[in-house]
Amino acid sequence: MPTHQSLSGASDDELLQRMVQTHPERFGPPFWEFFISHVTPVLAPNPVVVDLGCGPGLLLRDLSERCAKAELYGYDVTPAMVAYGRQLAFIGAPPTFAVHDVSADPLPHEAGSVDLVTMSSVLHVIDEPLPMLSEIRRVLAPAGLFLLHDWIRQSLPAYLAWRRDVLKEGPVEYLRRGFRLFPVHNKYTTEDWHWLLGEAGFTIRVETQLRASHRVFVATRL
Ligand SMILES: C[S@@+](CC[C@H](N)C(=O)[O-])C[C@H]1O[C@@H](n2cnc3c(N)ncnc32)[C@H](O)[C@@H]1O
């Protein structure tokens, strides 16, 4: 099965560096304004939070700054990502990080025990999203939240221009990577995400678009 890394042509270390470098732009003030408005008020005082495909763990680090009493878990299939997360400093208790293929193995959490599941730029690479969503639904508490942040389809010219102008990729690189990654990053429309979430037994509480490339959905179990 091709991995995100093999699809992008990047090594694990290159993908790690890219995730770290782009983190501040991907999770800047607009993301946290949205989070504080729509997620924080619904969270329990000591929430259990699970980040699936957590990459370098920086979302969990930022979350611990805003919710120091949270019990945090981060799972990623790439050992280099997990190793990076483990050496970060955390305001609250450090997360439990583990190398875990979230599409192949059940999540190590009891049914109904998780207050918030986050998944950022990962679900689009999962070949079969419905079993993954069903597993997320299983571990969520009845009032638990699923925060999905993922790519939405852009036209080919818009996507290539976005790589060139926003990611600042060079004249050769933006075309090479752009054509290779176009089918990966432009897999689902917003309407496809609506359909997938509904089909998996979620209802969308709120959604927004903070960047041309990504959409954020906050969903709960139906
Ligand atoms: C584009 S990165 C996003 C990382 C992080 N969520 C973020 O937004 O910074 C995608 C991450 O998903 C991980 N991943 C892909 N497939 C996975 C799977 N089946 N199980 C666990 N992690 C996976 C990759 O290793 C990579 O770290």
Keywords:
single chain, 222 residues, alpha/beta, 7-stranded mixed beta sheet, 9 helices, 41% helix, disordered N terminus, binds S-adenosylmethionine
Roughly how many Å is the radius of gyration?
Answer: 17 Å
Tally the helices: what do you get?
Answer: 9
Bound molecules: S-adenosylmethionine
Strand content: 15-25%
Q: How do the SSEs run, as a string of H and E?
A: HHHEHEHEEHEHHHEE
What structural class results from the helix and strand content? alpha/beta
Shape: globular
**Low-confidence parts, pLDDT < 50 over ≥5 residues?**
1-5
- Strand runs, count: 7
Protein architecture, described:
- The chain has helices at 4-8, 12-26, 29-38, 58-66, 79-86, 129-139, 156-165, 173-185, 190-199, and strands at 48-52, 71-76, 96-99, 114-120, 140-151, 202-208, 214-221.
- It has a seven-stranded mixed β-sheet, sandwiched between helices.
- The model is unreliable at 1-5 (pLDDT under 50).
- The protein is α/β, with parallel strands linked by helices and 222 residues long.
- The two termini are 32 Å apart.
- It is globular and about 50 Å long.
- It contains nine helices and seven strands; from the N terminus they run αααβαβαββαβαααββ.
- Residues 4, 19, 23, 53-55, 75-78, 81, 101-103, 120-122, 125 line the site of S-adenosylmethionine (SAM).
